Amino acid sequence: MYIRDATGRSTRKEADLNGKAYSRRDERRILDVLGGGLLKDFPNPERIGCPGADVLKKIASHEMPLSEADKWLDHLGSCSPCYADFKRFRETFERQRRQRWLAAAAGILLAVGVLGWALLHKRNESFVAQTAVLDLRDRSVARGGQPTPGEQPLELSRAVKHLDVYLPLGSAEGPYELRIAPIGGTAVVATSGVASLKDGVTSIETAVDLSSASSGRYVLQVRRPNSEWNSYPLLLR
């Protein structure tokens, strides 16, 4: 292959081009050949021997194998109009490639964002589904281990992991003990929490594990440490 430099001298370089794809090294070699004043040093107003716009576009966009493009390099190295066209096509190709890359990157970021939102939303839904409120504000207070006879039981799912207990009106803030037990039986849950007053409601937030409990009637018991239990009927589902 003969390559013409900016002074018009030709040098011979050998390369195995058959079936070879463009590499960064190849591209740098081509640009070195075509650089150095080619835009003005080799006028060809009659466009003698020019390969045409289609060939230049394919070379600029890497659509033409280097083995085929090689035969045009001598001409491109000695024709300012062809080099100007090649340079313009190459800039367009690089701009479009960057735009495609940015679009792909934006699509990936969007997909990751949507997936993250979906996972967070699912997690929040799961947390909400596993959280229950037991409202004791309007409940009658039954001292001791037995709830008030005939009172409608509170209902609670055995899948609940987080419990928010609204204490009776006038309850004090501070530490409390809670337990859930079958009527006359041993507690299946025994926990504690600190009651706090917010928006006029004194409540306790605590974690529970009811997975080992059977469905049926139970008693929810709440008390201040070393005080008597207050009992409320509870139905586990």
Helix percentage: 25-40%
Output the helix-strand order: EEHHHHHEEEEEEEEE
- From the helix content, strand content and strand pairing, which structural class follows? alpha+beta
| Intertermini distance | 85 Å
Q: How many individual helices?
A: 5
Shape label: rod-shaped
Low-confidence stretches: 1-20
**Rg:** 41 Å
- Number of beta strands: 11
Report the average pLDDT across residues. Answer: 81
Strand content: 25-35%
Biggest sheet statistics: 9 strands, mixed
Please describe the structure with a list of short key phrases separated by commas or semicolons.
26% strand, 5 helices, single chain, 11 strands, 9-stranded mixed β-sheet, alpha+beta, 237 residues, two-stranded antiparallel ribbon
Task: Please summarize what this structure is.
The protein is α+β, with helices and mostly antiparallel strands and 237 residues long.
Describe the structure.
The chain is of the alpha+beta class. Helix content is 35%, strand content 26%. It has helices at residues 24-34, 38-41, 53-60, 66-76, 80-129; strands spanning 2-4, 10-12, 131-135, 142-143, 154-156, 162-166, 174-182, 189-198, 201-207, 216-223, 230-236. Strands 3, 4, 5, 6, 7, 8, 9, 10 and 11 form a nine-stranded mixed beta sheet that branches. α3 (53-60) packs across α5. The radius of gyration is 41 Å and the shape is rod-shaped. 23% of the residues are buried. Residues 1-20 have low confidence and may be disordered.
